[in-house]
Design goal:
This protein has helices at about 10-15, 40-45, 55-60; strands spanning about 15, 25, 50. It is an alpha+beta fold. It has one domain: Factor Xa Inhibitor, CATH 4.10.410. The chain has a three-stranded antiparallel β-sheet. The two termini are about 15 Å apart.
């Protein structure tokens, strides 16, 4: 019997899939040097952005199961 492929857990923690099938990721640059950044910049970094299509295709393949 063929085994079912496993979900890549590291990717499932980093990305969200919307109901419509879009893949979202966090904006980079949030953790280091926060004291230099303005409050506005820190708030902007908290949101999620959509992954571009070529990368989204690869990510979806890894998050299939």
């Amino acid at each position: 019997m063929k085994e079912k492929p496993k979900t890549r857990k590291s990717l499932s923690k980093r990305f969200k899939i919307t109901k419509g099938g879009k893949i979202l990721r966090r904006i980079v640059g949030q953790m280091h040097y926060r004291s230099k950044k303005s409050g506005k910049k820190k708030r902007e970094l908290r949101r999620y952005v959509q992954v571009d299509k070529p990368k989204a295709k690869k990510i979806k393949k890894s998050l299939k199961y």
